Every structure is written in structure tokens, then in C-alpha cells.
Amino acid sequence: MFKKITALVILCVAAYASITTQLPENNFIDNPSTTEFSNSRAFKHVQVLGTDAHAVGTKSHQKASEYIIYELEKLGLDVHTQEGNSFSDWGTFAKVKNIVARIKGSDNSKALVIMSHYDSAGHSSKGASDAASGVGTILEGIRAFIAKETPHKNDIIILLTDGEELGLNGARLFTKEHPWLKDIGLILNFEARGSGGPSFTLVETNDGNAALMNEFIKANPKYPVANSLAYSIYKKLPNDTDLTVFRKQANIQGFNFAFIDDHYDYHTALDTPERLDNNTLSHQASYLMPLLNHFGNADLTTLESSENKVYFNSPLGMHSYPFSWILPLVIFAFIVFIALIIYGKRKKKLNNKEIGKGFLALFSALIINGTIGFIGWKAILNLYPHYSEILQGFTYNGHTYILFFVLLTLSITFYIYKKVYTSNNTKELLVAPILIWLLINLLISQVLEGASFFIIPLYFTLGLFFFLLQKEKPSIIAITLLCLPAIFVFVPFIPQFPIALGLKIVVSSSVLTVLLFGLLVPVLGFIRRKKSLGHILFIASGIVFVLAHLNNDFTAQQPKPNSLVYLQDNDTQKSYWLTYDAILDDWNSSYFKDTVSKKNVITFGSKYNTQFNNVALAKNINLPKSEFHISVDTIINNDRHIKLCVLPNRKLNSIEINSETKNNFKNFSINGTEIPTKIVSKFINDKSHRIATYSIVNNVPLELSFSIDTKTKPHIELLEISHDILENNYLNIPKRKENMIPKPFVINDAVITKNTIQFND
């Protein structure tokens, strides 16, 4: 009995350690020495930069750039800025300002770039995690690097980009115009998509990753969280970073380091210094310092490779092997499995009926739990429809729901295996999960090669299977030790999948739990009171669900994202209230008592394709119209050339430029910069009338120049946007309650005027 309890404790400790050892301990890197990195000093930068929203064009944005320049100059660096107009295929146009400095190395070699961005998102995000945390880490890391007089062969370039949140505009400007581009050998980019959790290492490369991963392993960061599956998924998602621009535009590769937990804070007013996890900040530093030292002296001209590697981390460190091993490892595992089946049958160690029971149990557990996981989250959304107001797809109590589904899955799986398990059929019950995992790995080898390290724990399971065929009464401790690789590799993914991709795929946690349970049957099967344990787990899942229910309301710490927009349509002389909210609240419901049709109402591109849910007529407050000056309107060689200047008569943040004739323009420029009008991207489809969104910096007017054939009458529609609905005295909108925040990822808290420019025939 003591050995069985010990075995169960070992499994539980291993599962706990596989998750908790990914992050540094408290104050792991809070070194008071002036020559070492200090978390406290880095956090002071975050506090300064992440106190106010500092999107491009705001006063706080200007203050942020001044602060960064001051801090870099304080280190004795020669700092310069790169300013210029930049247009991205997200359809955003702005004048941005990159901040750049360079530390000379001892050799005339390729340079290492340390990069983050200093602008915040949208109109309300404080940007403490995204990405003041990256800026703070770099400022403190470079300070310690200089103070220690660290010898380095390669130049170190500090690049803090602007306009990343608009559409990677600063990175685009750098790759297009900066003379230092040709010197770059490698980039380390620090990012965030939440406010906590481990920082994942994502390789960005056009070709093979083998040379990069070899050097990464040599650098030996203390807490690596890196696997080739994460990047395989990342490449399939509509997510980009500044590093993506360098990879695509200049074939420069590097590493992204990004934390993604507490996703509900992402791009919201909750992205504050107080909500940034200190251990997460330490984790970023635990990458920067060893990699800065290593790549500061490595040969950056030898990092390109045609070979790819599968790689993953465990509590024992980083592991990797070539892609060329993927299929042979799967085939050899199949051969070993078949050989063991033949061996077991010849030795009369395997019973077909008991093997059949194993398949029945595993498939039953997969089907039942998979169905509950898939339908369960949909049922929860119906039960708590206000969850849908959180556009990120991860609720404030999301971690609790993951735990609920895992506990419920374990409970049901124990009930099922109680029906088939005997003290003599453990080896037969192991046949089904081994075969299923082999088939999964065969599929992975063809469609998702980055996940091919899933085969590694299976080799230990095959060893366990052979062990069970040899021993009538095998040592349970030995069995447990052979199960540990499966724990170390698979357990972290149980919460990570829904954290990374949203609770809509919490079914993945249920399915992976069952598949892992199958590999652990040789240990879990020894538990005598499986039915009682199933009862305990079921009760525990119920308690956890109750806790999630008690924590479902919006509070000051978990505020409701809501929205309100005022639109004055100067074409129709009508005004409207607009909201993205499906569920109105006592802050905005009074504006939508008499709703009208949403048909033909303006729409904006957004990350989640969010549309207005409610529209109502509003009183026209006669917002001042902009002045439109057509300085050129002439015909040359059957093309009509027009130059238009827009002079706003109120403070604006941006102007969206739309046209029904955008596909007919021969050329089009904004403030002297030529832009394409026929682009299709994540925010602009081929049916969209949107040409660009002009983010206004320093009140620079909008000037459009274009040409079009004389047979087509040009059409230009402007949506002039200011995010000051709460400050507008004519609208008199009350402040939000403490349990509310502005909804992110959309045009919100906005006063908009719509104008269609009339051109003479």
C-alpha cells in the first residue's frame, strides 16, 4: 500500500512540477548588484511606461518616447530616432518614430538586435505587459550588460519600434529605409499577449531552424519554454510580430519571447503594471541575459540552415533532433509495438478479450469526455451569455473552467476503467492507448511535424509494455518512473491549448487528459477504490464549477467590456448611437430604447471581425465639419488627377478612408507616400471599400493624391474618428462604473463623422 501511495504521489508531483517549473521563482532575478539584472529596476520602467494609454499620436506616446531616449542616453549611448510615413498591409498609415541605439563590438561582424515596441494598443490599453514589459526588460538588461563591461564581438543594436499595434508599421519603416538593416544577423524580440504565465520561445525563420536551436541550447537559458509545436501553430494563426516583418521583408531570423496567459487583460485598460506577473517579467529576463551574452559573441553569419529540428523542453532542459528522424522514429515505434504484440501472444501473455476491453474503455472515455468538452463549453456560454462580451475568448474564470473539465474527465474515465480493470490485465489495457498514440504520431508526422516530439514519451511506454510482459508482479515504482516522460511532455499542454487558442477548444484538454490517462493506466490501475476516487473527482469538479459560477459576475477586478459610439452622418444629416455589445448594461442601455436596422451601418475591420449589434437614432449635435480643399483636378492622357486636402476642425485620432472605386485608381498616395489600393489581408478583403486608416500624429492634415480613368467618377468616403466620447460636453456621457472597461479590439468610445467628398463631373 505504501508503494502505491508513493507512486501516486510521484505522478502528482511530476504533473505539478511540469507546469510550475516553467516559471522562475519569486525574485529569482531581483539582484541588488549594479552589474546584474534587477527585476525591481525593470519594473520601475514598466510603471512609468504602463501608467497611461500611449497609442500612436497621443501625448503619453510622446512622453514614452522621450523617457526611453533619456534612459538610453543615461547609459552613455548615442541614441537616434527614425521617423517616417509607413503603410502596412493591415491598411494602417501613420508617421512613426523608431528609437535606435548601438553598442559597438570588438569585431566588424553581424549585429545582434534586441527589440520590443513602445506603443500601446487602441484607445484604452495601458500597455504595461504589451509591451512596456519588453522595453523595461531591455532597458534594465542593457544597463546591466554595460555596467558589467561584458566583452562581446558583435555590435548590439537596441531597436524599440513604434506603431506595432497599428500594423507593425515601425518594423516596416526600418526594413524599408534604415541603413543598419544590412548589418543585422539575428533578432531577439520581446512581446506579450496577456499579463502572466510562462514566456514561450517562438523561432522565426524562412528556412530551417537547426542552427538557431543549436545555439539557443548552447546559451542555456535557465527556464526554457520552447517547443516546435508552438511555432507550428503560431504560423497557422493570424498573429504577427515585428519580427515577422524582418523575416518576410529582409530574410532576417530570430526569436520571439512572448507570454500569453491572463489573456483577458490583453489590449484592455487592465493591462497595467499592477497586473503584470513579477515571475513572468523575471522569465523574460532569464532569456535576455544569457542570450545577450551568448549571441553577443556567436558567429551570426552561420545561423541559416536548410535543416529543421523538432525541439521541446522538459524539467531536465531542452531536447532536439532533426526532422529527418520523424518518420523513422514513428515507423520504428510501430515495428517495436508489433514485435511486442507478437511476443506477448506467443508467450500467451496477452488475451484478446482483455485487449478488446481496453479499446472499449479508451474509446468510451474519448467519446463521452470529448462530447462533454465540446458541448459543455457551448452550454456554459448559453448559461452565461455575458461571457461572449469578452472578445478574447478567455473568461476571467477561464482557468477554473479548464480545471473543471479536467476533473470531470478524470472522474468519468476512472468510472469507465473501473468496469474493465483487473489486477492481471494492465498490459492488455495498455495496447489501445499505445496504438492510438502511434496513429496520432503518424498523422502528426504528415501534417504537423512540429509536434513530432510526442513520440518520445511513447518509447518509454513501449519499454513499460515490455516490462509488463516480462514481470508477473512488476515494481510499481519502476512503472511510475517510466510514466514520467509522458507526464512531463503532455501535462503542460492540457491547460496551454485553451489558454493559447481560447476556451472554445477546452475539449482539447478533455481529450488529452483521456489519452494521457491511457498511458498511465499501469500506475492508476493499481488504485483499489477507483469508483470512490471517481466520486471524489466528480464532487471536486462540481465544487470547482460552483466556484466558477460564484466568480462569473463582472466586478471591479473583473470588469465588463462595453462600448458606445456616436456617429454623425453628414451625408444623410442623421446621427446614431452604436454599440458592439450583444448584452447592454446600465451604462449604455438607455441609448438603445428605440433601435433601428443595422443594415447599411458603417463597419470597421477588427481582429475578431466584430460588428455593431445595436443601432439607434441619436440627436444631431452638429459636430464641426472638416474643410475639404481640392487643389488639383485635371485630366492628363485620359486620366483624371486629383489632389485633396482634409483640414479637421476638431481633435481627431484617425481618419478611415473608404472608396467604392478603390479598384479603379491608377495610383493613390497619402501625404506624399504611394500606397496600394488593391490589397487583401487579415483586415481588408477584396470586397471591402476600405483603403486605409490614417492615424494622426502632431495634427498633420490628411492629403490624398490619386488618379483614375475619366470614365469613372471618383468616390471618397471619410470616417473621422476621435476617442473622446466621455469628454464631449454636448453628449454628456457618464463615466463607466468601476466594474466596466472599454471593449478592446474595436473602434470604441468614439465620436465619428461620416463625409462623402463630392467631385464635379
The total strand number stands at: 23
Class by SSE composition: alpha+beta
Helix content: 25-40%
Helix count from the secondary structure assignment = 21
Q: Mean pLDDT, nearest integer? A: 93
Radius of gyration: 29 Å
Distance between the termini: 93 Å
What low-confidence regions span 5 or more consecutive residues with pLDDT below 50?
A: none
Instruction: Estimate the global geometry from the Cα principal axes.
Output: globular
Strand content: 15-25%
Q: Profile the largest sheet.
A: 14 strands, mixed
Description:
This protein is an alpha+beta fold and about 750 residues long. The protein contains 21 helices and 23 strands. The strands form 4 sheets. Strands 1, 2, 3, 4, 5, 6, 7, 11, 12, 13, 16, 19, 21 and 23 form a 14-stranded mixed beta sheet that branches. Strands 14-15-20-17-18 form a 5-stranded antiparallel beta sheet, with no helix packed on it. A two-stranded antiparallel ribbon has the order 8-9. Helix 1 (about 1-20) packs parallel to helix 17 (about 475-490), helix 6 (about 170-175) packs parallel to helix 9 (about 240-250) and helix 18 runs antiparallel to helix 19 (about 505-520). It starts with a helix and ends with a strand. About 50% of the residues are buried. The mean pLDDT is about 95.
Topology at a glance:
Layout: H1 2-20, H2 39-49, H3 59-74, E1 79-87, E2 92-103, E3 111-117, H4 128-147, E4 156-161, H5 164-167, H6 169-177, E5 184-192, E6 196-204, H7 210-219, H8 228-236, H9 242-250, E7 254-261, H10 278-295, E8 309-314, E9 317-322, H11 326-346, H12 352-383, H13 398-420, H14 426-429, H15 431-447, H16 455-470, H17 476-490, H18 493-501, H19 507-519, H20 521-524, H21 530-550, E10 560-562, E11 565-569, E12 574-579, E13 614-618, E14 627-636, E15 639-647, E16 654-658, E17 665-670, E18 673-674, E19 690-695, E20 702-709, E21 716-722, E22 740-742, E23 750-757
Parallel strand pairs: 2-19, 3-4, 3-5, 5-7, 10-22, 11-23
Antiparallel strand pairs: 1-2, 2-4, 6-7, 8-9, 11-12, 12-13, 14-15, 15-20, 16-19, 16-21, 17-18, 17-20, 21-23
Helix pairs in contact: 1-17, 2-4, 4-10, 6-9, 7-10, 11-15, 11-16, 12-13, 12-19, 13-18, 13-19, 13-21, 15-16, 15-19, 16-17, 18-19
